Amino acid sequence: MSHKTALILSGGGARGAYQAGVLKGLSEILPEKKKSPFQIISGVSAGAINSVKLASELESFSNAIERMTFLWSQMTPDQVFKTDLLSVNRLSLGLFGSGSKGFDALLDTAPLNQLLNAHCDFSGIKRNIDSGNLESLIITSNNYNSGAATSFIQSSSSKLTWKESRRIAQLSEINSDHIMASAAIPMLFPAIRIGSQYYGDGCVRNNTPCSPAIRMGADKLFVVGVRTQLHAETAARADKNVADTHKPSIISIFNTLLNAVLLDSVEQDVQRIQRINQLIDLTGYSGTQNKGFKKIPALCISPSQDLGEIARQHAHRLPRLIRMTISAFGSLDEASEILSYLLFDPHFCRKAIEMGYNDAMDSKSQIEQFFLES
Q1: What Gene3D superfamilies does its record include (predicted)?
Q2: Which residue among 201, 219, 269, 359 is the active-site one?
């Protein structure tokens, strides 16, 4: 029996460069470098950018990864959002000015839309689906009007199997609007209108990011996270080192909220899947005996180092106006997560790519075993 293997790419702004590094390592580890090992690709936020870039160029998996890596290694802030005085100060103008009703975000991301249309061949998605290189591409966004996690799906299958109060699937022809919507980090990037509805970052309300791929038939999951997984004892030591002698600033609170909303879900979802796998092993149920449960092998590759800390060390590379705006609400040292979302800078992105590549190579035996298992 042939497996349907899904690639799951999570969100995190400029942290998406790490995913490119992991995939670069994967393309070197796999024996068939030209053929994609994934029948389903699912992405949210920054992962949506990488998902579409990959899905549109799957004729050669290794070449697609090479072009994706090159794009991230050359990216600059002005290719993602406007960095002029008026654009950057939309937040302060909206909060303290005359109260423009159009204000909904700190930054204007029109340049990102231009970048996506210049570097993504959206017609290639259909071409690869029609040729059998890909079965389904899934891009998930949060519907601000209904509060539902909406998965836009371009697929060889015309059957969609779910429509729930908080999770909806919608057949679509993926374009730059879907990526822009999925990557619209709350408060930082503006909401995007698709049809009559407005959408934002796909990580919001998306507590089970692996679910859309599983619902589309995936029975193996290769997941790339962008958050360092600390062991309990390491986290405890870090907590002891945190000074608690002053109240957190606005930027510190916002930093924590974004971290919780955008970065926690995919790793937790993988852990749930792995616990269910263990439960099935313990009970000995298999086939139809498991009453709807089945084992879904899931391998998650996550950063071995804190990308937020690396971003903090490169904070001086952000446009000066962005640094000044953040500093108005607190210290840059308190904004490591925010910095890592916004630091679309070649120096930071290359560091993230290098880490992703090294983490993949360090996990070579696990990766080989994962793709060898029938």
Answers
A1: Cytosolic phospholipase A2 catalytic domain
A2: 201
